[in-house]
Write a structure and sequence with these properties.
Blueprint lengths: L1 H4 L3 E2 H8 L3 H9 L7 E2 L5 E3 L1 H16 L3 H9 L3 H40 L7 E5 L2 E5 L11 H14 L9 E5 H5 L8 E5 L9 E4 L2 E9 L3 H14 L4 E11 L11 E8 L3
Antiparallel strand pairs: 1-3, 2-3, 4-9, 5-7, 5-8, 6-7, 6-10, 9-11, 10-11
């Protein structure tokens, strides 16, 4: 019999093989999920190598989130059809988790880029930059609307991009038309917007054209001061203001204590000749 037992593992050895505590094996035995192959009168328990394969299946199903009671049923009534159904179901769930994690990773990467951008940017600077074309999902026209309108428009935008998995971590931006800039109506926006992935259909969208933009920054609510500096830069360079200015946070309340410490990037379109 001693030679026969040489083919088996003690509870401790089997626990080490499975990388679990002995108490886990005791529990599986108690509920009838995985019992030792041999139980001696002196209390010693022995597991076979084949049972390691069973344990691996149990561990896999646990990783999938299958309750132990359901695992026991599967192992008691072993049928390929049942196994195929469960594995397909769990495969679908894993694909969903992967998509969810990819989406979360995209948001994290955007936030990371914004944070790194703040470390290498002089927010007192004004510069002329060539920007690539970008696509934004925009709100309805809110020109001349009261500020209270924003309390409904912003949640609607956020809800839509979250519902349709379009959120990439970008803050809400605003489109300010040339006419309002010239009138110094700096809070009378034409649209609110948010960056979305390319190729999305059935949304109201706006394409920011490729071209030259004067880029400056606004701290807190110092909007008029920021635009006066940018407009002065435009005039000194002999340039003309284009159709829109695009405003978006680079430091919002996620990264700053209080709105007074926020930083808004203003990208003022320049007319092409």
């Amino acid at each position: 019999m001693s030679e026969e037992l040489g083919k088996y593992f003690t509870t401790g050895e089997f626990a080490n093989l499975c990388r679990v505590k002995k108490q886990t094996l005791f529990h599986y035995d108690e509920i009838g999920l995985l019992s030792p192959k041999i139980k001696k009168e002196n209390g010693y328990r022995y597991y076979s190598y084949e049972q390691f394969e069973v344990f691996q299946v149990i561990a896999l199903f646990k990783e999938f989130g299958v309750p132990l009671k359901e695992i026991k049923t599967l192992l008691t009534d072993k049928k390929p059809k049942n196994m195929i159904t469960l594995l397909k179901e769990k495969s679908f769930e894993i694909e969903e988790k992967i998509r969810s994690l990819d989406h979360l990773q995209a948001i994290i990467q955007t936030r990371l880029q914004l944070a790194e951008y703040t470390l290498k940017t002089d927010f007192s600077s004004i510069s002329l930059q060539s920007l690539d074309e970008e696509t934004f999902m925009i709100s309805e026209n809110i020109l001349e609307e009261a500020e209270q309108k924003y309390t409904t428009i912003i949640p609607e935008l956020i809800h839509y991009i979250q519902l349709h998995k379009l959120d990439r971590g970008y803050p809400i931006g605003a489109l300010l038309a040339r006419e309002q800039i010239q009138k110094k109506e700096f809070y009378n926006y034409r649209h609110l917007y948010v960056k979305i992935p390319e190729g999305i259909e059935n949304v109201h969208y706006h394409v920011r054209p490729q071209g030259l933009y004067v880029v400056g920054y606004q701290k807190g609510d110092e909007t008029e001061h920021a635009y006066n500096r940018i407009i002065q830069f435009v005039e000194e360079k002999g340039l003309k203001i284009g159709e829109y200015a695009y405003e978006e946070y680079v430091i919002d309340e996620v990264m700053a204590n209080g709105i007074e410490n926020s930083i808004t990037r203003i990208q003022l379109q320049i007319q092409s000749y």
